[in-house]
Amino acid sequence: MPTDSYEITANAKINLFLRVNGTLPNGYHRLYTVMQEIDCADKLTITIDSSRRGFKINCFGRSDIDPEKNLCKKACDRFFSNYKKLKDESFTAPYTEIDLIKNIPSESGMGGGSSDAAAVLVVLQEHFGQPFTEEELLRIAVNVGADVPFFLYGGTCLCEGVGEVIKPVESLAGLGVLIGKPKAGVSTPECFALMDSEEAKPFDMKAYSDYIDSMNTHHRNNSDILEKLLAKREFLINDLEVPAIKLVPEIETLKTAFINAGAEYCCMTGSGSAVFALFENRGDAAAAMEQVKDVPALSGCSLYLAETV
Question: 11 and 115 in contact (C-beta within 8 Å)?
Fold first, then answer.
């Protein structure tokens, strides 16, 4: 088999809300969240050469990534080990080289590493002729990382469990998104530990299910999307936001600035530290970006313009 090369884009995500619904026996937290794909993206070129062995990743835009700990390598390892175990015991993994251009900020809660890993799984699945069923590929994905299964679907999805139970929701594509990323990141384990130290905030799963069903209908336009999304603002909560603000106070500063700039809705994504603001369209988000880019209190923050997809 000759050397093959593939180019693929790996989009980021935001969590429109994120509720923590207790813990599982293995200690992982049970999540209930709607993830939304956005067009802020990393780019990957993946080269596969069956005449050689080994793995190499060239990361552009991030010099501190350890290749051995990169989720792209983990995705390759999991795919190849499952291929050998389930499909062909004589299989030997080919040489795989990845050129990764990083645009999604790290330690942001935007799923950059998970999206990159999902992109690798998609390419390998194509290269080897779709050897795994959807269910098998999802099992591989969740063993790479909790957010990886979502990126095999993309779009708008309700995600439960540790992120492996996926239910697509009516598309919310086309909204403008302004993202602010403080210089400091949030330690996910530390954030969850802080949340666990506080009294749990129970929520009504049935009410959330009804709310999601109300959005899961045809949308006439972006204004209609926002109206349905914001109909239950009290549901739009990220349970990790309060502990994250204790670790990185700039999160609250960003939220205030975005709301003052006219954001329809503003929240931290994932375990942070990035904050996103929603607007009816990309133009409105760009106008808000112009308003906040010179705010002195945001001088250490990076700003990104995006759109839901």
Answer: yes
| Shared domain check, 160 and 12 | yes
- Assess contact for 264 and 227: CB atoms under 8 A: no
**Catalytic residue positions, numbered:** 13, 147
Please indicate, yes or no, whether residues 61 and 45 belong to a single structural domain of this protein: yes
Helix (H) or strand (E) holding 195: helix 188-197
Model confidence pLDDT, tens digit, residues 215-269: 888 888 999 999 999 999 999 999 999 999 999 999 999 999 999 999 999 999 9
Residues 55, 183: Cα–Cα separation, whole Å: 31
- What range defines the domain where residue 145 resides? 4-168
Structural domain contains residue 208: no
* Residue bearing tokens 């936001």: 241
Residue 213: inside a domain: no
8 Å CB contact between 238 and 260: no
pTM (two decimals): 0.94
How far, in Å, CA of 293 to CA of 142, rounded? Answer: 37
For residue 203, what are the β-bridge partners?
A: none
For residues 37 and 155, the answer to whether their CB atoms sit within 8 Å is yes
The last residue of a domain, from among 117, 145, 168:
168
How many domains in the chain? 2
**Same domain assignment for residues 154 and 20:** yes
Q: Are residues 24 and 123 in the same domain?
A: yes
Calculate the dihedral angle through the C-alpha atoms of 211, 214, 215, 218, rounding to the nearest 10 degrees.
170
Tokens for 37, please give them. 């794909």
* CA-based R_g, the chain, Å: 20
Of 106, 159, 114, nearest to 274 (Cα)?
106
